Structure formats: structure tokens, C-alpha cells
Amino acid sequence: MPGIVFFATENHDAVVDFYTTVVGAETWLEQPDCTILKHDNLLFGFCARDHTDDGGTVTFVYDARDAVDAMHERVGDAAREEPHLNEKYDIYQFFADDPDGRAVEFQVFEDGTDL
């Protein structure tokens, strides 16, 4: 069964724009105060609220390093760091911040693990 992860946000439009325009997610479903996005097999939603859930990390997994590098270029100043090898987890990755300050990770498994 598929699932959806929801986050409350005080910046609904800016957050949805970041994930659709910059990251490449698609709007899967619009509800009265929530937008559910889809990126490959990940469903995640943002609901307009008077507070922001900025804990946790939204991770996007790619199949090659060049795709991670391309995302680094796309997120621009939102990136916290340069893409790099994380030997502990055997991934190539970098972190960025979305408009809410939520951590966003872009990675590829170096061992070829495929989702």
C-alpha cells in the first residue's frame, strides 16, 4: 500500500513552488488547504497551517551521481554543501534547505541499490 507524508507549513505556495519548479515533483492532488506532490514513488503533502513542521528530512534518491550533481545546480543557493561521498552510508549526497528550512537530501546509492 502506498503512503503519504504530510507537513504543516506557513509558506504553502513557496514550498510547493520549490518542490515542483526546482525539484521536479508533480502535483498529485489538490485539496482545500493541502497539496499532495509526487516524485517517482514518493507522495508527500504540504498543508497550510499557522505553524511549520520543519523536522525530518525529505530525501530524493537518484540512479547516478550526475543526476545528484544536476540537482545541486538546480537548487542553487538552497544547497548547504557540495555533493560528496558519504563513506559511512556508501552514498553520494548533498543537503539543501526548502523555503521552510526543512532539510532536503539528494543522493544516489553507490552500491547500485535501486528503489
From TrEMBL:
Q: By its UniProt entry, which InterPro entries does this protein fall under?
A: Glyas_Bleomycin-R_OHBP_Dase (IPR029068)
Name of protein? VOC domain-containing protein
Organism field: Halogranum rubrum
Taxonomy-wise, where does this protein's organism fall, top ranks first? Archaea, Methanobacteriati, Methanobacteriota, Stenosarchaea group, Halobacteria
